[in-house]
Specification:
This protein has 16 helices and 13 strands. By secondary structure, the protein is an alpha/beta fold.
Length: about 400
C-alpha cells in the first residue's frame, strides 16, 4: 500500500528556482522507489513548475541586491506569504523544504512550523560561514531545521560546530556536468568559428543587477573591442522578462554583441567570461573557461554593509571561497571599472601562463565539491526525514 505525502518547497529568485528544479526530479524518483505518492507544492519559478511542482506563488522576480533595494519587496513578500499560508491551511504539508534565501525563508519557515508542527529541512543553508549577518541568524537557522543539507564542506563544518544536524551532500552542479556543452558544441550552436575571439558577459539573475552591472560590462567591452580585433560578445538571457531591457541595451551599445537564451552555451563557447559573483562562477569554473568576477551594489547599501552590518569577507566569488585563495580576480564596488575589467580580460586572452594557473585552481575547486549523485543523496535525506516523522 503506497503512502501519500505532501512536500512544500520555498525558494527565492532565479538561483533558487534553478536549484529547486534540479532537486524535484530526484525527489519524485526517490519517492517512486519508496512507493510514495508525492505531491510537491512550491514557492518558486517557471523551472520548478516545469519540473513537476505546483506553484503557489512565483518568487523568481523578488530577489534584491543590498538592503535598500530589498525594502520595496518586503510588503509584496509578506503578502505572498500570507496567501501561501492560507493555501497550505487547506492542503497542509507533511514537510517544508527551504532552499537558500535566508530573510524570507527564515520568517516563513518559523511560521509554518508553528502552524503545522511538521519537520523543516534546510537545503543550501544561508552562507553565514562566509559572512555572518549577525542578529543570531545562525542559531535561528539551527533551531528551525530538523535537518540541514550542505553543498560545501566548509558549510557543513560551520553549522555542525554550531549544533546543527547537518550532512554534506556535495554541490548539485556536479550532477549537471554531463549536460554542459563542450566548447566545440557551444560554438557550433552560436555559429562561431573555432578561432573567433569571444567574450561572454553575464550580468544578472536579478533585475537590479542589470542596472548595476550591465552598463559597466558594456563599457569594458568597448575597451576590449579596441584592443582585440574581430572580438564578439554574447550575453545569456537569465529570464524571459529581461529580454526587452537587454535587447534595447545591446542595440544601443554599438558593439558586436548578441543575446542567447542558454547561459551554458554562451559560457562554454567563450574565451573569457566576465560575470557577476554567484553560481555562474562555479559553472564557468566547471566549464574550464577563464573568468573575471565583478559585483556592485548601490552606495547606500554598500555603506550599510560596511558600517552597520560589519560585512567582512576575504572573497565573494564561490570559486575563491571554496579554494580558500584567489583563483579568479574579483573587482568589487569602485574597483569594478571598465578599464580594470578590460585589462584583466585581455590578460586572460593573451597570457597563457595566467590562464594555466587559473585552470589549475579550477581543478582544486572541483576536487572540493564532492562526487556526483548529489541530488539523489539530498532526496534520500529529505524523504528519510519525512518517513521518520511519520513513525509513531
Amino acid at each position: 500500500m503506497s503512502c501519500s505525502y505532501r512536500l512544500f518547497i520555498s525558494t527565492g529568485e532565479v538561483s533558487g528556482d534553478l536549484q529547486g528544479s534540479l532537486l524535484i526530479p530526484a525527489l519524485l524518483t526517490e519517492a517512486q522507489a519508496r512507493g510514495y505518492d508525492l505531491e510537491i507544492l512550491a514557492l518558486g519559478g517557471p523551472k520548478m513548475a516545469a519540473a513537476g511542482a505546483h506553484l503557489l506563488g512565483d518568487t523568481s522576480k523578488i530577489g534584491a541586491i543590498g538592503p535598500v533595494n530589498a525594502l520595496p519587496l518586503i510588503w509584496p513578500t509578506l503578502k505572498l506569504h500570507r496567501q501561501v499560508i492560507r493555501q497550505l491551511e487547506r492542503t497542509p504539508p507533511d514537510l517544508t523544504l527551504l532552499i537558500d534565501y535566508i530573510g524570507s525563508n527564515l520568517r516563513l519557515g518559523k511560521r509554518l512550523k508553528q502552524i503545522f508542527h511538521m519537520p523543516v529541512v534546510y537545503y543550501i543553508a544561508p552562507p553565514e560561514w562566509v559572512w555572518s549577518q549577525g542578529l543570531g541568524v545562525t542559531q535561528q537557522v539551527v533551531e528551525l531545521s530538523d535537518q540541514m543539507l550542505a553543498i560545501f564542506p566548509q558549510e557543513a563544518t560551520y553549522y555542525e560546530e554550531e549544533g546543527a544536524n547537518i550532512c554534506w551532500v556535495g554541490h548539485p552542479l556536479l550532477d549537471r556536468l554531463s549536460r554542459f556543452p563542450t566548447r566545440a558544441q557551444a560554438r557550433q550552436r552560436l555559429e562561431l568559428d573555432s578561432q573567433q575571439p569571444m567574450i561572454a558577459l553575464v550580468p544578472a539573475s536579478r533585475q537590479q543587477e542589470l542596472a548595476y552591472l550591465l552598463p559597466v560590462m558594456l563599457k569594458a567591452a568597448h575597451r576590449i573591442a579596441d584592443q582585440v580585433p574581430n572580438v564578439q560578445f554574447w550575453v545569456p538571457l537569465a529570464l524571459p522578462s529581461y529580454r526587452s531591457v537587454l535587447t534595447q541595451a545591446l542595440q544601443t551599445a554599438g558593439l558586436p554583441v548578441s543575446l542567447f537564451p542558454d547561459s551554458h552555451t554562451v559560457m562554454a563557447a567563450a574565451d573569457v567570461v566576465i560575470t557577476k559573483s554567484g553560481t555562474a562562477n562555479l559553472e564557468t569554473a566547471l566549464l574550464n573557461v577563464p573568468q573575471v568576477v565583478i559585483y556592485r551594489v548601490g552606495a547606500i547599501s554598500a555603506w550599510l554593509y560596511q558600517y552597520c552590518f560589519n560585512f567582512q569577507t576575504d572573497y565573494i566569488s564561490p570559486v575563491n571561497i571554496v579554494a580558500g585563495q584567489a583563483v579568479v580576480p574579483e573587482l568589487l564596488q569602485q574597483e569594478a571599472t571598465p578599464d580594470q575589467i578590460a585589462a584583466l580580460a585581455c590578460q586572460l586572452l593573451r597570457d597563457e601562463g595566467v590562464r594555466h594557473e587559473m585552470m589549475a585552481g579550477y581543478q582544486a575547486v572541483r576536487s572540493r565539491l564532492g562526487e556526483p549523485g548529489v541530488l539523489q543523496r539530498a532526496a534520500q535525506a529529505i524523504l528519510g526525514v519525512l518517513a521518520a516523522s511519520k513513525v509513531f
